[in-house]
Write a structure and sequence with these properties.
With about 375 residues, the chain is mainly beta. Helix content is about 5%, strand content about 45%. The chain is built from two helices and 28 strands. Strands 3-2-1-28 form a four-stranded antiparallel β-sheet. Strands 4-5-6-7 form a four-stranded antiparallel β-sheet, with no helix packed on it. A four-stranded antiparallel β-sheet has the order 8-9-10-11, with no helix packed on it. Strand 4 and strand 5 (about 100-105) form a beta hairpin. The chain is globular. Mean pLDDT is about 90; it is low at about 1-10 and about 10-35.
Length: about 375
């Protein structure tokens, strides 16, 4: 005689629900058991953005896009918004899903969705917060960003705009020194460092109070580009204006003191001032007018042989693989503007056509 217990029989709908939940859980995790990050939607979400500065006064700045399959699209801001971007696009900064475009010659900042390039906001000069010539941006935490501005060399002085990145508006401004340019936020000391390119100082600000706390003097040189290395030290390229000599400084961000000075002597060439760093943040790349030089952060003297020989206007390093991207600019006409991709040894990989004045490549997450 067989005995059947109906309580032991699995219910079909219970099994179905169990399978459905299991599939949902496993599909939301990767092989390491971690949640799969959301992939940003949009035609321009992956790949590379090219900052085409344009010719000053010609109102022809633009943004190019290079896809992961090496397809080039020019003037994506104009295409999406239907508007001219403006005059002299100085820089682009990515803050999460948005891109901030500092359009220096048009005295404005355009904020777009970085995947679709649809306009999110335009930050203009206002009666309350007057500014001119926005240059560079740094995320300083707590939904705040600093944007350096030159002013108009008349009634509007140099200042730092403090942006609430949630509402994309200026909430206050900070008095700045002449030629406030590159800005770096050090997460270790929670301080913002601003290079004053028309003088010979670097200003140190506390973003929690928006107060100037210190000034670093690098006389007789003027600071140009700045970045942080793996140890949290700041490296600065500097030279007197128009000079063929200069220096690279290493600054301790805890003491605000210069720890290393590497003299640069380019002979008859100009010290370009552009600075980039490899993915492990222990090798610097800088340019003279003839090419790109490589310099370990342990070095005590300048490099003598360029890793790449060309008249680089912009230098950018891909943080994923160390590829070196160089902008070649012709400010006399549309021809001759290129972005060239090399591997980290200086071997040519690709050449892409650019619009006027490519000064930087932005590597999209």
């Amino acid at each position: 005689m067989s005995i059947r217990n109906s309580n032991l029989r699995p219910n079909f709908w219970t099994l179905f629900l169990y399978v459905l939940i299991s599939v949902s859980v496993f599909s939301s995790c990767n092989d390491d058991g971690e949640n799969t990050p959301d992939i940003l939607e949009g035609k321009y979400a992956q790949g590379y953005l090219v900052v085409n500065e344009g010719v000053f006064g010609m109102n022809n700045s633009s943004v190019g896009h290079i896809s992961t399959s090496n397809s080039v699209t020019q003037q994506i801001f104009q295409t999406v918004t239907g508007d001219s971007l403006g005059d002299q696009l100085q820089s682009i900064s990515i803050l999460e899903d948005e891109a901030y475009l500092m359009v220096s010659g048009s005295d404005k900042i355009e904020v777009v969705h970085r995947g679709t390039f649809e306009r999110q906001a335009t930050i203009f000069d206002t009666t309350t917060f007057k500014f001119a010539n926005p240059r560079y941006l740094a995320d300083v935490g707590n939904n705040k960003a600093y944007i350096t501005t030159w002013g108009n060399f008349g009634d509007i002085p140099a200042k730092i705009l403090v942006i609430d990145t949630q509402i994309k508006k200026i909430i206050t401004t900070i008095e700045a020194s002449s030629g406030a340019e590159y800005v770096v936020f050090d997460s270790k000391t929670k301080k913002a460092f601003v290079a004053n390119t028309f003088g010979s100082t670097i200003s140190v600000y506390n973003p929690s109070s928006n107060v100037l706390e210190n000034t670093i003097d690098i006389s007789p040189n003027s600071p140009k580009d700045m970045l942080l290395d793996k140890n949290g030290d700041i490296w600065v390229t500097a030279s007197p204006f128009g000079s063929s000599t200069g220096a690279i400084y290493k600054i301790n961000t805890s003491t605000n003191s210069i720890e290393t000075t590497i003299q640069l002597n380019a002979g008859s060439e100009n010290v370009g001032g552009h600075l980039a760093i490899n993915p492990s943040k222990d090798i610097l790349y800088y340019n003279f007018s003839s090419g790109i030089y490589e310099l370990p952060i342990t070095a005590t003297a300048q490099a003598t042989t360029p890793i790449i020989q060309n008249g680089a206007y912009g230098v950018s390093i891909d943080p994923s693989n160390g590829d070196i991207w160089v902008g070649i600019a012709n400010f006399q006409g549309p021809e001759g503007n290129e972005v060239i991709q090399y591997d980290n040894k200086g071997t040519l990989k690709n050449t892409f056509t650019a619009s006027a004045g490519p000064n930087e490549v932005i590597f999209l997450p």
